[in-house]
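Model it.
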Amino acid sequence: MSQQLNQHQQLIASYTGKMLRDHFGKGPESVFVSIGCNVISIYLRNFITPSERVLLEQNHEMIIHQVREKLMQMIIPEISSYVEALTDIKLQEFYYDWNLQNKTMMLLGICEASVQGGSPVEINYTGKQQLEREIDTLSQQAQRSPDEIVSFEMNPRMLIIIRKGILVHLEKELIRLGQGELLKRAKRNLEKSFLHNNSSLDSILNKSVQDSFVDWNFTLDKSVTLLITGNK
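Modeled.
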């Protein structure tokens, strides 16, 4: 890893932590940034505020999701602007998701061109074909088979799956009627339950899937799934 790339990752991690602290009143314990190919991923650990913890104990998860959604819509443009000013990388797409039980969060930005000096990604990882078939099956259960699936490892612990062309006509109509946020919440709950209850993923990858995140860009009819893995 080049010194400049390492410095950029540290600065983005520091800035992201500060932005979350400023908006939420508490920042994450740790922030891990990876830059590779045309993707920048930001993985946060131990990120939950005292008030969120109380709401979680009282089974008010919906309130947490609604507040976080509003705050993230303010934070994402600022992080994107900072990344562009620092690296000259313009992020055309931004995805985010969190896991309240694990107190983790994922932010993922995608740019059109490859990042100069970015770490190489692994497109021929162990279990790639089987995993993509499993994701296709999951998609069919939740909506329909994607037009395209692309997957790669950002690093040995982080695997990214991009699906294109997954929305059905009913979902497109709900989005047109302004119900995109509700649709996303329902799809996220459904897909993550499939991921969490799928024992095949561990055997396919020969790793333990420890965390999963999923988000959509309805305008582009595109979805990004991020899996955090560890030793079995």
